[in-house]
Task: structure prediction
Amino acid sequence: MDKNKVIESAAKLIAKGAFDKAVKEYQRVLEIDPDDVRVLQKLAELYQKMNRKAEAADCFEKVAKTYSAQGFYLKAVALYKQVLKVIDRVEVNVRLAELYQQLGLVGDATKEWQTVASYYEKIGDTKASLDTLRDFVGTCSVYTFEPANHDGVRQSPFFMARMENGRVNMIKK
Result:
């Protein structure tokens, strides 16, 4: 099978509005090369056009994971944002927050961690919400407590953290 011809065929089918047939063409390529990010992204976009949100999000997420694993963090961020445009997935917010931290984008990371904490709070899981914020405080140098400063207080726009007896205690604002 000539991969490029199959991809070309899928593009023609899309132009004709034969989306289901185009999906099958892309799937044929993915049977041979399941990690082809170019085809996965095209399939995700097609699923999005077809309003098949879960499938679109799955494909976008697979592409984002591949880019992240290859060290293309900015491309991964763009794809994870695309997932969130299609469907809400708290695990994607977590991954975005982690990537933002790796990239040194503390403000963006803080926003994503707050989204995760708010999600847990909304579903009634206060412990997970506070754990999320505690973990963020522990991984972000801006909010890290020095051992000599056990009674220190750090604040963000969303919460206040107090170090007491070697533990981080979160106080939601």
About this structure: The first strand starts at residue 153 and ends at 155. The radius of gyration is 21 Å.
